[in-house]
Write a structure and sequence with these properties.
five-stranded antiparallel β-sheet; single chain; 26% helix
């Protein structure tokens, strides 16, 4: 009976982990550039001393869904979206280079160009800084140009930086706990001239809210089933103990 209890226990535990990932997807249905995580279950034998008579359920994250989210036209100068494949390079909280498709950019009071998550956008030589400007323009190739504040010339654009756009192989990317994509070998990806931006457009999340809700219900039912199996095993064990006492 302990085999049934062990299998049900591990199944319930892994179902909770999958529910956590699914809930995170559902919570980010409105997050700019968010890429959903895909989960799956599989059984694994318990290794060690003794006979291999036990298995346990294991939840694993096989991959991240890299499909493009819906595009929304905003018309804002600091909103950009990737045309086709590619990513914007940003500086993660740990100082390392990461990649995202979230193009909801802004300029901080200190002059740093950041995205909506507060991460600094990288150029060819580090984080991009923007001097005080009357107008800002971001070109298709990532060139950041401004009309300097008080320049007296409302038509002359001055280039102040070039956003690092990259096009890594999807097989070399993995999603970290910070929500950014990183290369599996930890090495930065060189800039690519094949990636282009669209100004005044934002890419939304690629999470399908309806599918995520269905998955949440299905996982909840699965967890309930596992807990019922555990209760049944305990009840059967109690009845067996009573029968043994009667003998």
């Amino acid at each position: 009976m302990d085999r049934s209890l062990y299998i049900a226990m591990s199944g319930a535990k892994q179902t909770l982990l999958a529910q956590t990932a699914n809930a995170n997807n559902l919570a980010n249905t409105q997050t700019t550039g968010f890429k959903s995580d895909l989960e799956q279950f599989r059984s694994r034998p318990v290794t060690g001393a003794g006979f291999p008579t036990r298995v346990f359920a294991m939840n694993e994250k096989p991959w991240t869904d890299f499909s493009t989210g819906a595009m929304q036209t905003t018309g804002a100068d600091l909103d950009v979206a990737i045309n086709g494949d590619g990513y914007i390079a940003v500086q993660g909280a740990d100082g390392k280079e990461g990649y995202t498709r979230a193009g909801d950019l802004r300029v901080t009071p200190e002059g740093f160009l950041q995205n909506g998550a507060g991460l600094k956008v990288l150029g060819q030589d580090g984080p991009i800084t923007i001097p005080p400007a009357e107008k800002l323009n971001i070109g298709r190739d990532g060139t950041v140009s401004i009309i300097p504040l008080g320049s007296g010339n409302a038509t002359t654009l001055v280039t102040v930086g070039l956003i690092k756009l990259v096009k890594p192989d999807a097989g070399n990317l993995e999603k970290s706990a910070d929500g950014l994509l990183h290369t599996k070998n930890g090495k930065p990806v060189p800039a690519s001239a094949d990636v282009s931006l669209a100004q005044g457009v934002l890419e939304g999340s690629n999470v399908n809210a309806l599918n995520a809700m269905v998955d949440m219900i299905d996982l909840a039912r699965n967890f309930d089933l596992q807990t019922k199996v555990m209760k049944t095993v305990v009840d059967n064990s109690a009845v067996s103990a009573k029968l043994m006492q009667m003998g």
